[in-house]
Design brief:
By secondary structure, the protein is α+β, with helices and mostly antiparallel strands. The chain has a single domain, classed as Immunoglobulin-like, CATH 2.60.40.420. Helix content is 24%, strand content 26%. The protein contains four helices and nine strands, in the order αββββββββααβα. A five-stranded mixed sheet has the order 5-7-8-3-9. The protein has a four-stranded mixed sheet with strand order 2-1-4-6. Strand 1 and strand 2 form a beta hairpin. The longest helix is centred in the N-terminal third of the chain and has 26 residues. It is globular and about 45 Å long. It starts with a helix and ends with a helix.
Amino acid sequence: MTLARRRVLQLGGGAFATLLRPALLQAAALQEVEMRGTARGEHVWFHPHGLAVAVGTRVRFINRDPGNSHTATAYHPENFDRARRIPKAAAAWDSDFLLPDESFEVLLSEPGVYDYYCLPHEMAAMVGRIVVGTPSDPRWQGPSPDTNDISQAVLEAFPPVDVILKHRQVTREDAM
């Protein structure tokens, strides 16, 4: 193979990789959180229930519990007049009830801590926390100090931010 031909192939491969890069980055920016439950429904949870992601990550909540419907609902005044537990600039979300194998996606574009819950199972501590970005970002907002409308048991179910940042994913099994 001639040097000129080899150079053309290298440039073509580089151009192809450059064109493919946004698609690869977009594919990498999707994380899944599963809604799970035991066969008889006595335990329900999000898996993972603590997740660290980059700003601009899309999160897909998918119901993998064959026996229950679930929601992924952000703590926010727009959702049932709850105290806000997501960054101030972030949009509220509520998946509505998802039947088994149904899913819902949300784009997390503001840095900070996002706490969410399953509407019918909040009192069973079916809650989760997503940490978007890092505390070094000047726009980053830490966890809400407001505890007025949340029980102590539910509050204690949220994994600590530092643990999420260290491990990137925290499951209920990790916390037990």
